[in-house]
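In response to reviewer comment 3 from the previous cycle, which asked for concrete evidence that the modeling workflow produces usable outputs, we include below a single protein chain processed end to end. The sequence was submitted unchanged, and the resulting structure tokens are shown without manual editing.
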Amino acid sequence: MAEPTTDERTALDGLRVACLTANEGVEQIELVQPRDALQHADAIVTLVAPEAGEIQAFDHLDKGDTFTADRAVADVSVDDFDALLLPGGVANPDALRMDADAVAFVRAMVEAGKPVAAICHAPWVLVEADLVRARRLTSWPSLQTDVRNAGGQWVDEEVVVCTGGPNLLVTSRKPDDLPRFCEEMLSAFANPALAVS
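The workflow returned the following structure tokens.
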């Protein structure tokens, strides 16, 4: 039997992905590039935020475009989705980690074994939900002390795929890592059974 092609390994065929952001402060490129990669692979991406309605994205410190949150995080369930995308931006995960519903949703997704992809500052939400203990991951460098203090192993690598937990966890450091991040995210979302406890 022939080896599957990259496209066959990453075709997501209706996989339901929650993309969780705050209503303000998400880094636009870290939202748009992974979302577009998922949609190109035939995933169904739902934007979820603390409140349904407008999401104000940013290009670093400058306002970017606005997007529409399809659902409020308090109104979604882990059963609604197969995977989770957490884009970065400084203000975005900082707001999410202060939202009890957002933290509970992220925790429930991980505990249910659903694959998660988080880039840049997004691992702050994982730290808040106590989900990095004994896991290997990366992030924007300023989070490394937070990750280590929460029991995680922080490494300075372009992309890290951690299978040492209840789910597959894909992390990257910054927008420059997006090509590899998207590639590994698609692979993880297409093959979540690779996770080991």
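The domain at 6-192 is CATH 3.40.50.880 (Rossmann fold). We consider this sufficient to address the reviewer's concern, and the full set will be provided in the supplementary archive.
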